[in-house]
Structure formats: structure tokens, C-alpha cells
């Protein structure tokens, strides 16, 4: 039985912009155990990155946590001071970002940037840090690490830079690695290599991973559990089989349908999800997906749906499920 | 890298050659020659003086002679200041200008960089607005206006600071402020926008995600990147400081090279004008080359060329 | 919570639409002007500019004193002061228009001289900027459009002009071109206008036309470089449009925002340079006043008549400052990158 690593309860987060309060996260709850690989899927603006950043206390100004609890590795992140959060960042939880081209400082060498995090969080000497940096570089599959360690970011390709980011993230052996769309900015072939690397490392080091992406293909490769987010809420959560083979929420179904299939014969049209995302300044009272949902009912527009559990781990927030239960109840009472 | 230095030096010399040629031939457009300002001498005296200073030979020959002499370090005697050569005059006046100018550059950098950085860090707060206000003034007001306002307030009304000459440290205060005002304002604005740019970069987010303190984030990661455009500005700033000295030296009667330059033009002291122009132009052009090389050194991205 | 059948009736499209809000898109000019009008600093600067223009161009024609007029007995009057003769007129009931800023050592009213000085400075700034705009944008557009070898050569030239220490050359040029130009004016009647405009001013214009357009050229060129890859250029070429037509109609038109902003910001820069030159005596020639030359002549009397120095100095600073702030406002309003 693995330990509970992360538990988020009813997180609410808003950005207080000059235009008004943007409610980025609207009651988000989920948990992770040691060794889990969770995928958070959603379109831009759904709140997936915001959720992940909040675990590290990295929420950018003018964002602020306005409700809920974040429990990570025994810390109450939502209650910690900045100086204590700094001890955890890069140390117990690390993050790799989307664009490796811009995430590395152009004026320092690769080696400097790796040893920096080692010298910050561990008690090793400069020499030890340098050796460890070289070790890490070969761990992430970079050849000639002794030479590379003295190079600058612009001398490396995109794929290699992302490997360096992974090396920096793993340097202090964190319990949790957050990957925010790590392959979006890379070529498809490099993408595959990076994902393979991450799976290898997970096996070797036994760490947990949160993979944030809008690409269902990636999710199917590496994740065990998936949370589907829309407009600041988790609309469906389940194992990879649950989501891919028995999707329940209309949004999830829409996402799966919109993937063009290579095996189709004939000229099938692509099926997009109609409409555009909601205005987060004035989020609706009901289900945020309602305007774009082909099965939208009157109640969907007025009231936020509750979670319906389809199994121990699989749940979804949709009035259709409630309707099914309601219909069943009606039948039962009519029969009985 | 060596290739780059060679190219830059080559173009610098080319530009200098153009400047020298233009200057030389321009001086001769002035009718009357250098002696006409004085009480009209007899033709014989005129001929003798022309011969003495080599002014009676054809233009091209004079040009050739000049270049040959120049390359040997001889810029000729001053026509107006009898008994002194151009080189002597420049070497006595230039250090004065260099001291004032150097101080101004130092002040501009030491004030401008922190001011700009603070404005960026506290963007939108009152300190940013205050710095923005002052710097907007700084880039709009010409140096002679600043000089005269300073003199009126501190010399005439308050009688705190002396106006003329450079005999005590107090004498340096107003001229340096007058020259440094514009570059300080410019640098602080440049620094602010550069710093804002850098602070919004992804690698700053990486630095924060590593758990670095705000102090380290600023001084190790941000400053090192933000300061690059300032290095690029060093060239124009030095040129500005030099030319700013023309006016400031006049107002405060500082015995510097700028003052000398203006005087020698009005006096039509050809060798002096030539010598000073070439010296100042060479100084600016070569300094620009140095700054370019320094920039390539501090920005590793360019090393690759 | 009570649920009943009516809740589960499908929602209609109209009901769904009401939840989707889309922001309207506005046109480029309207959007920019709207933002400009909201910018208080820029609007105040615009008002100051207009006031200065009125003072400089319109008021002197109606002013009771002429800038050249030397009135005996009126020398060195303090601001709002009157000479003995004028005082006598007032006492006998006549109205004497006040000398708001007093007079100079030749009995000329200072206020009108400052207004004339502003006019000269503004004219120089505007004309010089116009020259720079024309040369710079055409040069930059041609270099950017044709690219390749032509572009390389043109930009090499620009680089060299950039490295030349401009102020040194200006001073030299002005000091030396004075004489041949004066000769030309005096010997050839076709060039007599040189004398009225003033040799110093002409030299300033010549120098600006020779050296100062390079900044504008570089900016236009880089804008053109990115614009010419756009599809409407390829379309125009496919339809057989000539190079000149493409540059004129399509490319430069899209640079108008950049051109306006850069030219507006060039004006205070030109005025800055002109006042500097006039201050060291190389700009306009007497009796034509320029704010710089007014400041220069007032320098000698700095202890006794500080107002003679302060007035033109403040005026120059005001003009430059307001143009700078307005130009900044224009740039903020029309730079699409700053859109929130």
C-alpha cells in the first residue's frame, strides 16, 4: 500500500486582474499516492497548469489561493511561508516547463545551472556538485557529459535542452515531478524519446509524476490515472482504461472524438467541439461546458452538477448521470 | 572571434579615414585663411607666414604632407597659440575633459542601473512613477539648460558651489551633474525596460521553481541578462559625454578639450581643428570597437559567430 | 434538492448562446485613437503642444512688439517693467502693452523674441523630421524590399554613417559651409533666399539630410522585412504590380503607424540638436532668435538677469518634453504588441 503523497481538497484560486477576478480554479480536489503517474488533460485556460503550480506555491502574481487545502508530503502548502516553500521547491517537488528554449538562462553554462540547485538544497561541495551534474547528464541520456557540462544552452538542440531541464529537476531526488506540457515545443520524434526517458526514470527512481498536457496521445503512453479539466473544474477522473474505453462526460467524449483516426477508411470529417470556452471573469452558475454540450439540458444551465461515482476511482460531474439515476428511481417507484 | 575583431577594426579605420579627409577639405573651404582675422598684414608677411606653415603648396600636396606627419605623431604647430604644437595642447587639455567625462559616465552607470532596476521591480508603485517622472525630464532637457539652472540655483542664489574653473573637488559637482543627467535618465529607462523584459522570461520562472531566494534570482539571473543592452549603449553614451562637454566646458570655463575645439573653430586655427577632430573621432570610433568586443564577450550567445 | 422531469428537458440553442460572450473587434485606427484619448499624460502634452504652436506661429503676427524692434530707452527692463517714456504715456492715460518678460540689452521685447525663437525651433524640428522621414523611409523600404546584395550594401553604408561621430561633423560642416553658401547667396540671385532663411539653418538641414535619417531607415527596413513575407504582397506581385506600387501602396501604408510615431519622436530630438548648436553659436544668425541663441546671449548676464536665461531654457524643455510624452503616448496607443 503506497503512501498518500498529495491531497488537494476543494482548492479555489483566482487571479485578481485589473479587469476583475478571474476564477481560475473552482473547487478542485484530487489525490496521488507515491509512485502514481497522473495526467491532467484540458484545453488552454482550463486550469491544469495553475493547479500544478499551486502545489509548489509558484502561483504567479496576481493570483492567490482563496480556499481549500493542499497537502503535499506532510506539508500544508497553503499555509506555508515563502521561505519554507523555497526549501521544498526544486528539492521535494520539481517542475519542468513547456519551452526548453527559453527555460534555461542563456548566460550561464549547463553545468552551472545544474550545480546551482544541488548547492542550494544539499550539503555537497562544488566538486561533488560538478561530478553529480555530469552523472545526471548521462542519466538523462546526454552523450559526452563532461564536454556538455561546460556548454551554453544555445549550443544544444531542443530535445537536449529538455533533457537538461529534467536533469535539473531530478538533481535533488524529488518525490514528485511535475511536467507541464514538456513535449509540446518539440518534434514528434524527440517527443517520443523524452517520454521514454521519463518512463525509464520513473522505473529507476520510483518517483511520482504529474503530466500536464492537452495531447491525449501522450496521456495514453505514460499515465495511469487521468483528470480531465474544464474551466477550472475536474469534470471527469478515472484510470486510463476508464477514460479511453468508458468516457462518461460529454467533454471527454468530445475530446476523444476529435482525434483523427489513422485507421478510418473513407473521408471522415474531423469532429471538433463546437463553440468557445467560457469567460472566466463571469463564470456561469451551471456546468461550464453547457453551451457547447449537445446533450445540454435546462438544469445544466442553472446548477453546477455534482460528482457521480461510476466506480471506486472513476467519477464524473454531469447532470446526465444524475438524470439516469433519476430515471431509474422513477422507474423503480413506478414499478414498485 | 579574431575575424570579428579584424573586421571591426578595419571598418573603424575606414571611417576614420573618411572623417579625416572630410575634415581636411572642409577646413579649406573657409576663405581667407587663418591669418585674416588679425589686422591685415602686408602681402609679403602673408606670403612668409603661408610658406612657414606650408599653406602655399597645392591642396593635395598639403594633404599628403599632413597624413605623413600625422602617422609619425606630428600634428603640426598651432597657428593661433604660438610656440605650442597641437599635440602639446591636446595632451594638456584632454585629461581635464577625461576626468569630468569619466566621472559623469561613472555617475550615470552607478545611479542609472539601480534606479532602473528598482523601477522595474516595483512596477506601478509610486517609486516607479517617481523614477519615471524624473527620467522623462532627464531625457528632454538639454545639458546647457541643466547647467544654467544649476548655476542659477547653487552658485548665484544659494552660493554653495563655485561656478568657474576646476580647482577644487567642489568645482566638479555641477559640471558632472550637468553632463551625467541625460545618460542617467536614459540608462534608468533602458534598464527598466530591459529588466521588465528579463523578469518576464521563462528562465526566471525556472529560477523561482528551483527554490532560489528573490535576492539570488535578481542578482544572479536577472541582472546578468538585463545589463546587456546597457553595454550596447556605452558607445553612444561616451560619444554623447564628449560632445556634451563642449557646452558644459564653455559655461563653467573648464580648460578642457571641448572648450578648445570650439575656440579653435572660431579662431580658424586649422591644425588645431584638424588635430582635435581626428583625436576625438579616433577616440569615439575606437571606443565603439572596444565596446562591441566587450559585448561579444559578455553575451555567450554571440560567441558562435 | 428537488429534481423533476422539467429540469431534464434539453436546452435550446438560444438559451445556450446567452452564456457565451464574445468581445467585439474594433478597427486599428479607432482602437488606437481611443487608447490615445484615454492616456491623460499624452492628452495634456498635446494641449501644451497646441498652446506652444499658437504662441509661436499665430500670436507674433498680432503682437504689438516686433522681435527686431529695438526701442531706444527700453533697454534692460525687468519683467512687467516700463521705461521712463512708457511710464509717462501710462500716466497720461495711454495704454502701453506690458513687457511680460522685460526687454533685452537692445530694447527688444523679450516675450515676442521667445515666441519667435519657439517658432524657429519648431520649424527646424518639423522640417528636419520631415526630411528624415522621407529619406529614411524610402531608403529603408527599398533596402528591406529588395533584400540581397542591394540591401547589404545599403546597410553597410548606414553602418558607416552611424559610426561617424555626428556632432563633430555637424559642427565642422556648419562652420565651413557658411562661407561658400554666403558667397553663393551674394553672387547668384537665384540663391538669394539663402540669406533670408539664414545660412546656419540651411547647414542644419543639410546635415540632418546627410546623417540623421539612418535611425529611421533601420526601423523601416526591419518592419518591411517582416511585412514583405505576408500573403497580400505575393498576391499583389502575382497580379503584376510594379515594385514601386507594392512598396507605396502595400508596404509603406502598413508602416504608417511606425512612421508617425518615429517622426513625432524625431522632432524633439531635432530641436534638441538645433538648440545645442545655436547655443554654441552655430545655428541661426542674428537678429533671428532661436531659443538656443537666446539662452546663449543671456548667459553673460546670468547674475543680474536670470530670467533672460530661464525663460528660453524652460521653453525648450517644455517643447521637447511635451513632444516626447506625446510621441510615447502615440507609440503606446498604436503598438499592437501592448494590447491587453
Molecular structure report:
The complex is a heterotrimer of chains A (336), B (305) and C (340). With 336 residues, chain A is α/β, with parallel strands linked by helices. Chain A has helices spanning 48-55, 82-88, 100-103, 110-121, 126-139, 145-148, 158-170, 188-205, 216-222, 240-245, 250-257, 298-302, 319-335; strands spanning 4-17, 20-33, 37-41, 63-72, 75-76, 93-96, 176-180, 208-213, 225-230, 233-239, 307-309, 315-317. Chain A has an 8-stranded mixed sheet with strand order 6-7-8-3-9-10-12-11, with helices on both faces. Chain A has a 4-stranded antiparallel sheet with strand order 2-1-4-5, with helices on one face. In chain A, helix 5 (126-139) packs across helix 7 (158-170). The mean pLDDT of chain A is 86. With 305 residues, chain B is mostly helical. The longest helix of chain B is centred in the middle third of the chain and has 36 residues, at 86-121. The model of chain B has no long low-confidence stretch (mean pLDDT 81). Chain C starts with 12 loop residues before the first helix and ends in a 6-residue tail after the last helix. By secondary structure, chain C is an all-alpha fold. Chain C is flat, with a radius of gyration of 28 Å. Chain C has 14 helices and no strands. The relative contact order of chain C is 0.13. The interface between B and C is large, with 45 and 39 residues.
Amino acid at each position: 500500500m503506497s503512501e498518500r503523497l498529495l491531497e488537494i481538497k476543494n482548492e479555489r484560486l483566482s487571479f485578481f486582474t485589473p479587469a476583475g477576478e478571474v476564477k481560475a480554479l473552482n473547487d478542485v480536489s484530487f489525490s496521488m499516492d507515491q509512485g502514481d503517474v497522473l495526467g491532467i488533460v484540458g484545453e488552454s485556460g482550463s486550469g491544469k497548469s495553475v493547479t500544478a503550480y499551486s502545489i509548489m506555491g509558484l502561483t504567479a502574481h496576481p493570483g492567490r489561493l482563496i480556499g481549500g487545502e493542499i497537502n503535499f508530503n506532510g506539508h500544508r502548502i497553503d499555509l506555508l511561508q515563502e521561505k519554507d516553500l523555497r526549501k521544498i521547491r526544486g528539492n521535494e517537488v520539481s517542475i519542468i516547463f513547456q519551452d526548453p528554449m527559453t527555460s534555461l538562462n542563456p548566460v550561464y553554462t549547463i553545468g552551472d545551472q545544474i550545480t546551482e540547485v544541488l548547492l542550494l538544497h544539499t550539503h555537497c561541495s562544488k566538486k561533488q556538485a560538478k561530478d553529480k551534474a555530469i552523472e545526471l547528464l548521462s542519466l538523462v541520456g546526454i552523450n559526452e557529459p563532461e564536454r556538455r557540462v561546460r556548454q551554453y544552452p544555445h549550443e544544444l538542440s531542443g530535445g537536449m535542452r529538455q533533457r537538461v531541464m529534467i536533469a535539473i529537476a531530478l538533481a535533488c531526488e524529488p518525490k514528485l515531478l511535475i511536467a507541464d506540457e514538456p513535449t509540446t515545443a518539440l518534434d514528434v520524434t524527440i517527443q517520443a524519446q523524452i517520454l521514454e526517458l521519463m518512463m525509464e526514470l520513473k522505473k529507476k527512481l520510483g518517483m511520482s509524476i504529474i503530466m500536464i498536457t492537452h495531447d491525449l496521445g501522450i496521456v495514453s503512453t505514460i499515465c495511469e490515472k487521468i483528470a480531465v479539466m474544464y474551466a477550472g473544474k475536474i469534470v471527469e477522473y478515472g484510470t486510463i482504461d476508464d477514460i479511453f474505453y468508458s468516457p462518461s462526460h460529454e467533454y471527454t467524449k468530445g475530446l476523444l472524438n476529435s482525434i483523427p483516426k489513422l485507421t478510418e477508411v473513407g473521408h471522415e470529417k474531423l469532429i471538433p467541439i463546437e463553440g468557445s470556452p467560457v469567460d472566466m471573469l463571469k463564470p456561469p452558475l451551471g456546468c461550464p461546458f453547457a453551451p457547447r454540450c449537445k446533450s445540454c439540458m435546462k438544469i445544466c444551465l442553472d446548477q453546477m452538477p455534482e460528482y457521480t461515482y461510476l466506480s471506486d476511482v472513476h467519477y464524473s460531474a454531469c447532470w446526465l448521470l444524475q438524470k439516469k439515476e433519476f430515471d431509474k428511481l422513477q422507474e423503480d417507484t413506478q414499478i414498485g | 572571434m579574431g575575424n570579428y575583431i579584424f573586421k571591426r577594426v578595419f571598418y573603424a579605420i575606414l571611417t576614420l579615414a573618411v572623417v579625416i579627409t572630410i575634415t581636411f577639405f572642409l577646413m579649406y573651404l573657409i576663405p581667407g585663411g587663418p591669418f585674416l582675422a588679425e589686422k591685415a598684414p602686408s602681402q609679403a608677411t602673408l606670403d612668409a607666414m603661408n610658406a612657414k606653415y606650408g599653406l602655399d603648396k597645392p591642396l593635395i600636396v598639403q594633404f599628403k604632407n599632413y597624413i605623413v606627419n600625422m602617422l609619425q605623431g606630428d600634428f603640426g604647430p598651432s597657428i593661433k597659440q604660438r610656440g605650442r604644437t597641437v599635440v602639446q595642447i591636446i595632451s594638456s587639455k584632454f585629461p581635464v575633459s577625461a576626468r569630468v567625462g569619466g566621472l559623469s559616465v561613472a555617475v550615470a552607470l552607478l545611479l542609472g542601473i539601480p534606479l532602473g532596476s528598482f523601477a522595474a521591480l516595483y512596477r506601478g508603485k509610486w517609486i516607479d512613477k517617481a523614477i519615471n517622472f524624473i527620467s522623462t525630464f532627464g531625457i528632454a532637457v538639454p545639458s546647457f539648460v541643466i547647467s544654467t539652472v544649476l548655476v542659477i540655483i547653487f552658485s548665484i542664489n544659494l552660493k554653495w558651489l563655485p561656478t568657474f574653473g576646476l580647482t577644487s573637488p567642489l568645482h566638479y559637482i555641477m559640471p558632472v551633474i550637468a553632463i551625467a543627467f541625460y545618460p542617467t535618465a536614459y540608462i534608468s529607462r533602458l534598464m527598466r525596460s530591459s529588466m521588465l523584459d528579463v523578469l518576464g522570461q521563462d528562465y526566471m520562472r525556472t529560477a523561482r521553481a528551483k527554490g532560489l531566494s528573490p535576492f539570488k534570482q535578481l542578482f544572479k539571473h536577472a541582472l546578468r541578462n538585463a545589463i546587456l543592452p546597457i553595454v550596447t549603449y556605452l558607445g553612444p553614451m561616451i560619444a554623447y559625454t564628449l560632445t556634451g562637454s563642449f557646452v558644459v566646458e564653455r559655461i563653467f570655463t573648464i580648460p578642457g578639450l571641448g572648450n578648445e575645439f570650439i575656440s579653435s573653430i572660431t579662431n580658424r586655427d586649422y591644425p588645431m581643428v584638424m588635430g582635435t577632430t581626428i583625436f576625438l573621432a579616433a577616440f569615439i570610433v575606437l571606443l565603439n570597437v572596444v565596446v562591441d568586443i566587450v559585448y561579444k564577450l559578455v553575451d555567450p550567445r554571440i560567441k558562435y559567430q | 434538492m428537488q429534481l423533476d422531469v422539467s429540469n431534464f428537458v434539453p436546452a435550446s440553442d438560444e438559451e445556450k448562446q446567452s452564456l457565451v460572450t464574445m468581445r467585439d473587434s474594433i478597427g486599428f485606427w479607432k482602437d488606437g485613437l481611443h487608447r490615445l484619448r484615454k492616456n491623460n499624460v499624452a492628452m495634456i502634452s498635446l494641449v501644451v503642444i497646441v498652446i506652444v504652436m499658437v504662441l509661436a506661429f499665430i500670436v507674433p503676427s498680432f503682437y504689438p512688439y516686433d522681435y527686431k524692434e529695438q526701442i531706444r530707452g527700453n533697454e534692460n527692463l525687468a519683467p512687467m517693467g516700463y521705461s521712463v517714456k512708457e511710464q509717462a504715456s501710462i500716466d497720461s492715460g495711454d495704454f502701453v502693452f506690458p513687457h511680460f518678460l522685460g526687454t533685452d540689452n537692445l530694447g527688444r521685447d523679450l516675450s515676442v523674441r521667445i515666441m519667435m525663437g519657439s517658432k524657429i525651433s519648431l520649424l527646424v524640428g518639423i522640417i528636419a523630421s520631415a526630411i528624415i522621414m522621407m529619406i529614411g523611409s524610402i531608403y529603408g523600404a527599398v533596402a528591406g524590399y529588395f533584400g540581397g546584395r542591394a540591401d547589404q550594401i545599403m546597410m553597410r553604408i548606414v553602418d558607416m554613417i552611424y559610426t561617424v561621430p555626428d556632432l563633430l561633423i555637424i559642427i565642422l560642416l556648419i562652420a565651413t559651409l557658411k562661407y561658400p553658401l554666403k558667397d553663393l547667396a551674394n553672387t547668384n540671385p537665384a540663391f538669394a533666399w539663402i540669406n533670408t532663411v539664414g545660412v546656419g539653418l540651411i547647414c542644419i538641414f543639410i546635415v540632418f539630410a546627410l546623417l540623421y535619417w539612418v535611425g529611421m531607415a533601420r526601423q523601416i527596413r526591419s518592419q518591411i522585412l517582416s511585412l514583405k513575407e505576408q500573403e497580400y504582397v505575393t498576391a499583389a506581385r502575382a497580379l503584376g504590380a510594379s515594385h514601386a506600387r507594392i512598396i507605396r501602396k502595400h508596404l509603406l501604408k502598413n508602416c504608417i503607424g511606425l512612421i508617425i510615431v518615429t517622426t513625432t519622436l524625431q522632432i524633439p530630438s531635432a530641436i534638441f540638436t538645433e538648440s545645442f548648436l545655436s547655443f554654441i553659436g552655430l545655428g541661426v544668425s542674428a537678429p533671428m532668435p532661436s531659443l538656443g541663441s537666446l539662452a546663449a546671449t543671456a548667459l553673460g548676464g546670468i547674475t543680474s538677469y536670470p530670467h533672460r536665461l530661464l525663460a528660453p531654457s524652460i521653453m525648450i524643455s517644455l517643447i521637447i518634453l511635451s513632444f516626447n510624452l506625446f510621441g510615447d503616448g502615440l507609440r503606446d496607443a498604436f503598438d499592437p504588441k501592448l494590447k491587453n
